Model the fold of this input.
Amino acid sequence: MIGILLTIVSSFFFLGIIAFTKSITQGRKGPGVFQPLKDITRLFKKGSVYSSTTSYIFKIAPSIYFCSVLCALLLVPFQSQKALISFDGDFIMFAYLLALGKFFMILSALDTGSPFEGMGANRESLYSMLVEPAFFILMGSFAMYTGKTSFQDIFYNFIDFQNPTTAFLIIIAAYILIMIAMIENSRLPVDDPKTHLELTMVHEVMILDNSGFDLGIIMFTSSLKFGMYGLLICNLFTDSTMNLLTQISIFILVQVIFAVLIGLIESFRARERMKKNPVFIFTLTVLSMMVFFGVLLMMNKM
Amino acid sequence: MILSFFLILFVAFLILFIVPINSKSFVSVIISLLLGIVSSFFAVYVMLNSPINYLLDDTNVIKTEIGIDYLSAFFIIIINIVVIISSIYNIGYNKNQSNIGKLNLHYACISILHFSMLGVLVCQSFIPFLIFWEIVAVSSFLLILYESKSKEIIKIAINYLVQMHVCMLFLLIGAFILISTTGIYTFESCKTYFETHNNFFLFLLFFIGFGMKAGFVPLHTWLPKADPAAPNSVAAIMSGATIKLGIYGILRILIHIKTQQYEIGMFLVIISLITGLFGIINAIVQTDIKKSLAFSSIENIGIIGLGLGLGFIGIAVENYSLAFLGLAGSILHIFNHAMFKSLLFLGAGNIYIQTGTTNMSLLGGILNKAKVSGTIFLIASLAICGLPPFNGFVSEFLIYDGIIGEFNKGNVSIDVLLLVSLFGISIIGGMSIINFTRMFGMTFLGKRRMNLSNSEIKEVSPWMYIPQIFLVLIILSIVIFSTYYIEYVHLVIHQFLPKYHVIPSEAMAPQPQILIVIGILILSIMIVSFIKHYFSKSKIIEFGPTWGCGYTGETSKMQYTPSSFSESFENITGQLLNTNIKFKPIDKLEIFPTSRAYTKANNDILDENFLDPPIHYIQKNLKLFSIFKSGNTQTYVWYAFLFLLILFILTFSEII
Amino acid sequence: MKSKEIKNNESISIYEIPVLKYDDFYNHILLLFKKTEIHCLSYFAYFKEDFLTFICCLANDEEKNISILSHEMPKSNLQSLASLTLKIPALHIFEREIAENFGIKFENHPWLKPVRYSFEREDRNKTMNNYPFFKIEGNDTHEVGVGPIHAGIIEPGHFRFSCHGEIVHHLEIQLGYQHRGIEKLYLSKPHLLQQTILSENISGDSAIAHNLAFVNMMETLYNTEKNVSWIKIDLYRSLALELERIAIHVGDLSNMCLDVAYQLGNAVFGALRTPVINFLQLWCGNRFGKGLLRVGYNPHPFTKELYEKLVIILEEFDLKYMEMQHRTFSLPSVLNRFQKCGQLSKMQMQTIGAVGMSARMAGVERDIRQSHPFNYFQHIAYEPVILENGDVYARAMMRNMEIQKSMSYIRVMLTQIYRLNVEEPQKYNPEIYTKKMNPNQISISLTEGWRGEICHVGITNEEGNLLHYKIKDPSMHNWTALALALRENEISDFPINNKSFNLSYCGHDL
Done:
């Protein structure tokens, strides 16, 4: 429960920290950390414009998207603090819940009949297909290492910083999770939400016709997703023997570092060419396979 | 009693030919209901009690043994649901069909197909089994021909018939080997045979025979041709029920194989992964809904086979949680796939009735005109993608659970196999999402891409969507009562184990928790919708055109096409596809391009390079097949009769 | 003699231009175009008395002169003509313009489509909404229409992509939304100052370059006396032109970084543009140099303070700029996006008659500063920057190198200004506003703006008023290059390609 609350709270700041970091690196004063949150509340207060081409899918999709992420969040533990619901194979459900949200967002993009949004939908569906195996294989490797199959048990039995190999694997795993989060949220190097050009974006172009409450909830879901992946990564670096306060401070630290890292990446590099994205994303799967074989080695199976 | 039942059935069958054209469909429903209720009664009886076996006559040369065990019962129920629903659907679907001869043949064939499929399931001895198997093939062949407007369809139907006989040939050889070495005429002979002969070869023989029916790659090539050619209700039966007979056959053989399960499991996993990947990759690039659905059937056969293979590996290494999870996932997926795939084909039928085409490039925007059909198709799409809260998730979850739960138990080779399976099933899952968002999006959402008929799209008649809603209810029941369904599936699984084994606790999937999450999901969606409603009550809600950058001219072509949607996917998977693009790119120095067209066709790479040449050879060189070129249905009926006669005579003279 | 040769900023009597029959006219243009150093400056028609006169100005870059030839057609009997575009695609836009304005049909023109908004054209049934776009047949490809309202802050224009998936097979650009009838305004606003202000507003980002062309030409037509101190005016004008070049190029680099999502480059280059345009404001009161140039005098003297200020600005700019350009052009992720993107060949650019930096980045040597020098460039031998690649990288690099080149020339000019021992030119010359132009003259004025060659043609009538005024912005030629660059490229690379050209909508639409 604490984990979920912390994630929701941290998602209020997350996008703000990214924007803040970016403005600092550019030597600008930049907006406050709360600006994205203010934008979202402003959107909640607004009316909406719907395209007359759209059907009910367009209207319910944002809600389903939000709820799918919220439900997925229920399955993620916060180290010693148990997840609200935990069962064997819950990370399968986690991935499928996220996929459900994405399924509806893709449909809602196609619902408008706009070529831009079709383009976004096409890219999103392709990238989420490519990123799926990376997550499963990573979690599968954890499952193999711990002999457990739920988030809760995996993270509970996981940490062992003494072993340098484990530490190394944890770093790779964290990298993979960060990259998955970046792809899921359509950030650099796969996508750049700040260009505001219809032809180059992935996620942003899908929601071109959303407005008001719907747009607000989509943006909030986006930051919630970041918070959720932050929580997952935080689980990699905490130990169940730590007391709650330490865990919370590690959580905050992980979230802030995560956000600053994204801000820095977005400042100091350009985005990939669209054509190269599939290869880039697929590399994550290869990396997670390396984790898998690393675990095999550690278990002396190879 | 049984005799009187057959009499009633026969009378009903005859009535079918004499009643007026509008009542034929009802009579056909009555026949399938008769068949369905009676056979389901036995099936349910078996499920609740114990298998039944009835030896018709041991002295007879045909040596017929009729029996229903859990496996048969399971398939009987699947087939009855699919056929009855499709028959009811036919009432609405064939309303405008006025050719009485065609309709007679159509309904008669559906009844015969239903009867013969049940026959295949209850016959435990080879010869009647094969006879029914043949009738299944011939009656579906005639059903494919139903809408034969073009030579193309006749060609496809003949191709189907030829391939079915190739598969028949393998089965005959297999049966011949079994009967001649063991002298037993029932499937029990497998048991005896495999106990003494440590032979992978025979399994392979049967696998080719049955796998051809099921649609395992590379034996699948008839499926993506026959399904689109057949009328939609028939396609629903073929993809929902008939190809499951192939799986049934494989399972029937596997029941008796108690040795070399590891190798067979490995073989199944590998071929299933290939099947699944190949199926879904090809499904994504098709622009015809039915063709895409047919390829997606191949993909699902892959998932079924994957679960099966994993289960068998589990049995072989005595890892019973893997065995139970894999087999339960696989067998439940057979049921699930029958439900949502027939639902999808019936949905394609709705589209066909509404627009006169199933080509996605011409469709779009149906959902706003036909909410019920659209929503049904959406539910089926979500289910087939394995997304919660629908039934596909339940069975795929079992397979996933089997894979990840077993990682740290086995040796390294199993681990690697599991890794490959995990990779395969997860990427298949991702691709299904591409496929069905594309299919649903292009067909039901956005604007109409091209209107050929100019008639407004209307909702189909309740005769068509009410049976579909019934299927939706079954789909939902699988989610809500998943524990009960899995319990019955476990009954089937026990048949495969060498001895009775208590189901390990890990193999009991966490259904209650899944249900809780699904419950929370639905509840939260309702709450958020309510909040949204509350928030927007006082706000201005406007309607306007989709954002088009302020352009005010003609925008009809400005919408993503299905072909464009799969372009980047094709770029990645290009090697596995046979994409045929007819387009001359505009030259660098062709400053002002002259008019040109872009056409793309995706053919089956294996079909053209692997199976087509020999079959073409057969078709070309065997004089026997030249009679098919006539396209006359009666010829085919006579041919079928002739073939059965030959089979019968051969049996009598004890040649096989 | 079939054509008359003149120099840049020279005027001749219109009667000196040989009038040819269309066949001769046609053949002679074909003959001239055999040489690669020939390109078309302007080809237009206007009503002179009872005739519709066609004038074609072709520049010879080697011999540094301009050939003018003409054809006449009686007003009462307008006929259709054989199209030159089939043989010389570079002329397509001019023929389309003539066809649109006068209803002359060019036979076998492969691309006879509207050029501009139907506000004063011959056939007003052709509206923006029924523009005949090129269509690829079949159900597989789709079209994407972008504009006229864009996501970025750019001018209106409609881009129609014929795509299959992510790949663009054809791009067609429909412009004309910005059509204001500027050329007609020159005739209806007789006052010279009005005309000067019009020239400053042809294209906002080339205010100095366009105005310079106008001012130079007017000085020819008004026969302005040029005394010793005129060299200072030339220096100031060239200095302003190069400052404009630097400002726009560096701004474009910033925008290109934005489009590949390179935040740092976007921010730093964006910030570097500010001191340059602020200097222009300090000089003349306008950040874009409006009001800086006037016919016959120099209203804003370049004072000692300005001189010192500019030296400091340049120094700071140089330091920061060199560091940032080094970073940007060595960052792999940026290079990855720039290189091999939107590549054009020299052959293509020659065929479409591209000019300016768009031509030079593909290896076409075409720079007015060298071939038809004006103002201070008459006194030095300018050496243009030529690149070969023809991709986005080449266009970015071209900007980078031109900035550096301009900086070095500005330094030279500054030393000249400092050293020259002539008195300041006149601050105001009221006489010029009362004089009449030489009657029946034609004059051509070329300048090399940052985009490329700008060509103004002025024709006076018997009373010494303007009879016809013709403007050609480099974008007229170069829009086609953008369309070509996108072929078989990814649609997501369109914004970066578009920015790399940064063509003018209003310069084209006039």
